[in-house]
Amino acid sequence: MLYALPYKTKQFFFVLIKLSIVVGAFYFIYTKVAENKDLEFSVFIGFLTKNKVFSLKNMLFLVILSIFNWFFEIIKWQQLVKSIRSISFFEALKQSLASLTASLITPNRIGEYGAKAIYFSKNYRKRILFLNLLGNISQMLITLLLGCVGLSYMIVNYNLEVDFFRISRIVLIFMLVAVLTVFGVKQNKFKIRGFTIERVKEFWLNIPNNIKVSTLVFSCIRYLIFSLQFYILLRLFAIDVTYFRAMSVITTMYLLASIIPSIFIFDVIVKGSVAVYLFSLVGINEITILSIILIMWILNTVLPSIIGSYFVINFNVYNNSPE
């Protein structure tokens, strides 16, 4: 056990783990940006220079949108944690950005859960895991709702190939899971790693309704911000497309990309593949879409994770588990 080791040895292991997380995150970022087979970095830079996307005015506006995107994510996390204890905006910022860095190389952002939980003492950690899940579910719910609207529009107006048989199977699986969940909820003896469904229900009911509503509102605001950012990039690349038509494709893209399991670092590849196909239906070329996807990833994932690496390095388990 780690806690049975001498203090100096434990300190050494903690430093090693933190360095491994940061070095691993930077390595994957470098690999994706510098060794992207779909879009070579030199071609990417040349394309941006040609389209004058690098102007100070454009980049400043795009960075401001990214700041607002993460501002509302941090506020959302602060409000969620408020249901069990109050934390400052700066504490919420540290936890959000450090967990982003830690999750960068883990499948489906699993690392985010453990990274946020470790900031709290043991008696809070199960509830922190649940709150983080709730925040992610709220974001997914917004993605599904708006994505279904966009997908419906795409199916009606474009020759969008949809495997309805596969979709029906997925729906049936979700329905089966929902039925089993409802059945499990009614069984008080049903447990998840020692945490009974009854306790989950109790914890859910104890979260104030205004926090549940604000979580959905902040998730919706975030979605509108990064969707607007995507549309602005389309306009910066001189793509003549209406906002409504662009949003139908953007919402469909995020819907399809979000339901495909992937390691978070390869999220940019998944979105790129889906986006290239969808935007080809409205006549937008591949290099433009791949460039936009990469810019979005750099602005909303890479830059915040670089800041988060500072908090990972400076994390001290003995000073970051408030009672």
TrEMBL record:
Query: Could you tell me the keywords of this UniProt record?
Result: Cell membrane, Membrane, Transmembrane, Transmembrane helix
| Any Pfam family the entry gives | LPG_synthase_TM
The superkingdom of the source organism is Bacteria
What parts of the sequence cross the membrane? Answer: 12-33, 53-72, 129-155, 167-185, 213-234, 246-269, 276-299
Task: Quote the protein name from its UniProt record.
Answer: Lysylphosphatidylglycerol synthase domain-containing protein
Location in the cell? Cell membrane
Its membrane topology is listed as: Multi-pass membrane protein
Coiled-coil residues: none
